[in-house]
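seq:
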Amino acid sequence: MTQFYNAKDVAVALAWRPLIDAIDGLFRVGCTMPIRHHHGFHIPGEEDGTLLLMPAWSEGNYLGVKMVSVVPGNSGRGLPAISGTYILSSAKTGELLAILDGAELTARRTAAASALAGRYLARQNATHLLVVGTGTLSLNLIEAHSAVHDFGQISIWGRRFEQAEKIASEAQNRGFNAKAVSDLEATARNADIISCCTLSDKPLILGRWLKPGAHLDLVGAFKPTMRESDDAAVLVASVFADTREGVLSEGGDIVQPMNAGLIDFEHIRADLYDLSRGKHPGRMSEEETTLFKSVGAALEDLAAAIVVHETKGG
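struct:
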C-alpha cells in the first residue's frame, strides 16, 4: 500500500546524523542518476520560476523522482520559495511505495549534504558558523552543521535585518547560541564556516574576507547566472563540489569564472563521490581555505526518501 509522508513526517524521520550518514553511504556505493530536467517557466509580473525533475534509482532496490518548483517571488507572499513532491517506487517491480513532501525532503537533504562536506572539509575545531540568508534553509543549515561541529557562536545575516533577527530568535529557541548581524564583512572575516543559502545573482562573500582555514559552503545559487561568491574566493580556496557534472553545468560560482578562463575543470579538487570513497582526503591542513559548491543531486533525494520510508515502517 502506498504511504504518504507529509512535511512533519519527513522532518521527524530525517534526524541529522543518520541522514548525513545515509547520503555519505549512497555516494560511496553510487546509484544511477540521469541529468536532471531543468525548465524555466514564466510568471507574469515577476521573476521566472524553475521546474526541476530529478530521477535516481538503485538497481533492484528503490527508484525515485522529485518534482520541485522554485518561485523567487514567493518571498513577497510570505510563502516558501521551494515546493515539491517526491515519488518513491520499487526498482524491482515498479510498484509505487510512497509519496513524500518534496520541499521538506529537499531542505533537509540539502543541509545534510553541506554538513557532510563540512565533515570532510572544515576544520574539526570550527567554533563560529555564519549563515548568509534567511530563507527556509537557514535553520536547517544551522542544525545540520551543528550535528558535525560544536559551535560556540552562530551568526545570521540577511538583506533584511529584522528577518535575520527572526531566524536568530528561532535558532535560540532550539538551543543555539545565535544572533543576527548587520556587518557581513566583519563577521565573515572571523567565521570558521560560512554557509550561504540565497537566491543571489551577485557575489555576497568576497575572497579577501576569507581567513586562512575558513570553509565556504555555497548552497543557494543553482543556476549559471547566479552566484554567492566572487572570483577571488574561487581562486584562493581549494574547490569541491557535490557532483562535478551538476556544478559544471549549473553552479554559477564555478561556471562563471570557468567561462572567463580563470579556472578549468581541474580546479575542482574532488566531489562527494571522491570524498566518500576515500579518493581524496578532504582538508589537507589547518590553514587550507576550502570551498564547497552544491547544486543538489538526485542521489541525495533518494537517500533521504529511503530513510523516511524505512524509518516510518515501509
